[in-house]
Amino acid sequence: MSSVELATMLERIASDNPGIRSVTVVRHGTVVLDSRISPFARGDRHDIHSCTKSVLSALVGVAIDKGDLPGCDTRVLDFFPDYEMAHLDADKRALTLGHLLTMSAGLKTEDSYLYDWVGLGKMRASRDWAQYILDLPIVTEPGTRFEYSNGVSQLIAIILQQATGQSVEAYAREHLFGPIGIVDYAWQGSGPDDSWGYSGLSLQPLDMARVGYLYLRGGEWNGVQVVPADWVQNSTSPKITAGTLAKSYGYQWWVDDDMFMMQGYGGQIVYVLPARDLVVVFTGALPEQQYFTPRSLLSNYIEAAVIADHALPANPATAARLDSLVRVLGSETREPLQPAPDLAQAISGRAFEFTENKMGLRRLNLHFTPGSSEAELEFVVGAAAGSLTIGLDGVFRISELYGQRWACRGRWVNGETFILEQEAPGKVLRRRATLTFQGDTLRFEVHDRVTDSVDIFSAKTAGAPPVAK
């Protein structure tokens, strides 16, 4: 691969990054590029969201091959013989595991981004997720129309757990992650014996690439057939027209003419291009309007970099440029500390109490120390209190809070306005808050850089700052 195109891609990301967190490129089994964009760091896991569905599909193939699960033609109702369900008709009786895998169940789940995830919230609020899904009416004959559904994938996970007697996570650890060397992961669930199937898996980018490479090699890893080859072929072949994020859909995999894909909310993507012997991984916190940016980078730079099937002549200058860009993107440049306005000390330590708001933010106070490159943010959200460190020199500071890493940096833009940038590395969360102080009031404007929504809250000082003793 040519380092010229790869370096140019990284330059574009550096100059105008919409929220890409990492780029990993593997060709002929060699890691050609593995870049992180700060504050997302090497060794961090990222929530892969709906890429989880493709991993779930691999486990279904393993379970069928091992005899732990019957085949795709098995009727869904056969997995739930003790359930009574609403809207039981001929279509529901004909519903099969294969229909679930191809997102052609016809169930009225209304739980994707097209419906603002309303149905997903209803499922998660119900006591029995399987019962909730099975009670839904079928509005389209199974197998005739693609309709993306999180609930359908969750039903697959429930079926797998009932059939194997293990959580999806435990089954993956034994039959998938262990054999291909994935040891650092987290899989969210409702308990020790229950894993989510529609989302919930967190992996490092290189381990996402392992899953893609496993499928590129037909399910084989170091001479061991981990996932049956025919299942890999079936899963990544067009089963039904999708026409949304790709032309077609297989068994929980997206399929286009020359590639198949794992895709998740916010820009978590694994592209597999068999003809080029290529696996490409992106993670990110992309807004909806930038969702196809990774596809553009793949086409315009990464595929363009594939110019031969043999070793290329050495190009030390461009290789050094590429390595330098990887280092620059993985770190931040410390900026000269700017003088703080007089207001910084006037409001330092002073608590501001908010009116009722959708974030549940009740109280906030900032602590500024003259000459320091850091500030402290203390806050109360709901019944929980916390504090975060803010970098004032252009560099994110990382704080651990509630089991999550938070990255914050801020700057004064005038005598009364402070800008706070906040990210949760590994989560689809990026936001910018504009804090405007006027007398005893605070105007708190939050721009969610993923959803592109803006919320404005107001607060009043809760009293004078504490007197130093």
Task: Write down the Rg.
Answer: 25 Å
Number of discrete domains: 2
Please outline the major beta sheet.
Answer: 10 strands, antiparallel
Assigned CATH superfamily of the largest domain: DD-peptidase/beta-lactamase superfamily
CATH topology category name of the largest domain: Beta-lactamase
The N- and C-terminal alpha carbons lie at a distance of 64 Å
What is the overall number of helices? 13
Helix content: 25-40%
Question: What is the general shape?
Answer: globular
Strand content: 25-35%
Low-confidence stretches: 465-469
Q: Strand order, biggest sheet?
A: 19-18-17-16-25-24-23-22-21-20
Label the CATH architecture of the largest domain. 3-Layer(aba) Sandwich
The beta-strand count equals 25
Overall pLDDT score: 95
- Indicate the CATH class of the largest domain: Alpha Beta
Assembly status: single chain
* Structural class by sheet pairing and helices: alpha+beta
Question: What do these coordinates show?
Answer:
The protein has helices at residues 3-15, 51-66, 90-94, 97-101, 118-125, 129-135, 150-164, 168-180, 205-216, 229-235, 293-305, 316-329, 342-347; strands at residues 20-27, 30-36, 46-47, 185-187, 189-191, 194-195, 201-203, 220-221, 224-225, 240-241, 248-249, 254-255, 260-264, 268-273, 278-284, 352-354, 361-368, 374-381, 384-391, 397-401, 404-412, 417-423, 430-438, 441-448, 453-461. The protein folds into 2 domains: 3-327, 3-Layer(aba) Sandwich (Beta-lactamase); 342-461, Calycin beta-barrel core domain (Lipocalin), CATH 2.40.128. By secondary structure, it is of the alpha+beta class. Mean pLDDT is 95; it is low at 465-469. Helices cover 29% and strands 28% of the residues. It contains 13 helices and 25 strands. A hairpin with a 4-residue loop joins β21 and β22 (417-423). α2 (51-66) packs parallel to α7 (150-164).
